[in-house]
């Protein structure tokens, strides 16, 4: 089947009726996702409704806009041209529909955070903020994007550090608690760990250097374990992924590892928590704090963080 829709009748005269907003939204979603199923999920309607709206739009437009490519849909050359115009029109309509009152946050919000925080906390919760403030468009960047953390392009940064950033507005967000985590498969392979000194028989995983384990082992007075053995990862996501895969025991915390612990992908070892010397801070320029979108995110992130760490 070459095409999910019946071939549209060719029009030789420009249409006198404008296409419906439903048809344009359906086409825009298909152009974005390349699938009627994903487009339907995005718009909270059925795939058959997407197909119906595409058929209506093609009949109105007078040309084929999409074609099937395997299980996916792709735009025709006419569809590509039209998609760009439709996207621009929808953005103009959305911008024009923003309330003019001073109390409604709107516009773009650029948030900087490290990749671990972005992957294991922010991406898990950001949908709640989007639901509360649909007129705020968010872009999340990381230091790996080679963007200055405190450049004018950044509206707000969530930084893990010592809290000393001269000339910036700095607020303590949270001081994480650290503890060893590993995959249940590692326990099955090596046996239960009953005492911290037993860790000398297990592979250790480290983030950046050996200090994570050195701090935790010193805090629990485990003198029989060498902290400078095992694999070191410069990216905390890789360290947590290796722990999930059963390749060793990592030092996790109740921010980055909490979801994996709740899901059962990782298990906590021992009851003792250690609070490190660094914390998560909300860092902004003074003039940026006055923006409604920044103020809304600050209020939301403190509230959401309090709830999520209480659950974790």
Describe this structure in words.
With 312 residues, this protein is of the alpha/beta class. The chain has three domains: 21-96, Orthogonal Bundle (Arc Repressor Mutant, subunit A), CATH 1.10.10; 107-173 and 281-311, Periplasmic binding protein-like II (D-Maltodextrin-Binding Protein, domain 2), CATH 3.40.190.10; 177-275, D-Maltodextrin-Binding Protein, domain 2. 40% of the residues lie in helices and 19% in strands. The protein contains ten helices and 13 strands. The strands form four sheets. The chain has a five-stranded mixed sheet with strand order 4-3-5-13-6. Helix 1 (21-33) packs across helix 2, helix 1 crosses helix 4 (77-96) and helix 2 (36-43) crosses helix 3 (47-61). The two termini are 50 Å apart.
C-alpha termini separation = 50 Å
* Strand order in the sheet with the most strands: 4-3-5-13-6
The proportion of residues forming helix, as a percent range, comes to 40-55%
- Spell out the CATH superfamily of the largest domain: Periplasmic binding protein-like II
List keywords for this structure.
3 domains, four-stranded antiparallel sheet, Arc Repressor Mutant, subunit A, D-Maltodextrin-Binding Protein, domain 2, 312 residues, 40% helix, 13 strands, 10 helices, alpha/beta
Summarize the SSE layout with pairings.
Blueprint: H1 21-33, H2 36-43, H3 47-61, E1 66-69, E2 72-75, H4 77-96, E3 107-113, H5 115-132, E4 136-141, E5 156-161, E6 169-174, E7 177-182, H6 184-190, E8 205-207, H7 211-219, E9 231-233, H8 236-244, E10 250-253, H9 258-263, E11 267-268, E12 274-275, E13 279-284, H10 292-311
Helix pairs in contact: 1-2, 1-3, 1-4, 2-3
């Amino acid at each position: 089947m070459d095409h999910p829709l019946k071939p549209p009748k060719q029009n030789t005269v420009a249409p006198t009726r404008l296409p419906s907003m439903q048809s344009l939204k359906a086409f825009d979603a298909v152009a974005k996702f390349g699938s009627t199923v994903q487009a339907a999920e995005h718009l909270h309607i059925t795939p058959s409704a997407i197909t119906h709206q595409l058929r209506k739009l093609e009949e109105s437009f007078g040309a084929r806009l999409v074609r099937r490519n395997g299980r996916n849909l792709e735009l025709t050359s006419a569809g590509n041209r039209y998609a760009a115009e439709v996207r621009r029109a929808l953005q103009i309509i959305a911008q024009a529909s923003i309330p003019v009152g001073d109390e409604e946050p709107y516009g773009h919000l650029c948030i900087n955070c490290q990749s671990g925080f972005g992957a294991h906390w922010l991406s898990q919760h950001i949908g709640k903020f989007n639901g509360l403030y649909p007129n705020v468009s968010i872009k999340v960047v990381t230091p790996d994007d080679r963007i200055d953390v405190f450049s004018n392009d950044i509206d707000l940064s969530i930084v893990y550090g010592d809290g000393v950033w001269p000339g910036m507005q700095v607020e303590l967000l949270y001081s994480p608690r650290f503890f060893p985590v590993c995959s249940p498969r590692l326990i099955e392979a090596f046996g239960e760990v009953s005492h911290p000194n037993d860790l000398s028989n297990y592979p250790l995983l480290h983030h950046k250097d050996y200090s994570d384990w050195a701090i935790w082992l010193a805090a629990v007075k485990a003198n029989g374990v060498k902290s400078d053995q095992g694999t070191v990862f410069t990216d905390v996501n890789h360290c947590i992924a290796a722990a999930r895969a059963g390749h060793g025991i990592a030092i996790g915390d109740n921010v980055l590892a909490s979801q994996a612990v709740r899901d059962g992908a990782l298990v906590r070892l021992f009851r003792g928590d250690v609070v490190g010397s660094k914390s998560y801070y909300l860092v902004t320029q003074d003039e940026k704090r006055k923006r409604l979108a920044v103020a809304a995110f600050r209020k939301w992130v403190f509230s959401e963080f309090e709830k999520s760490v209480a659950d974790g």
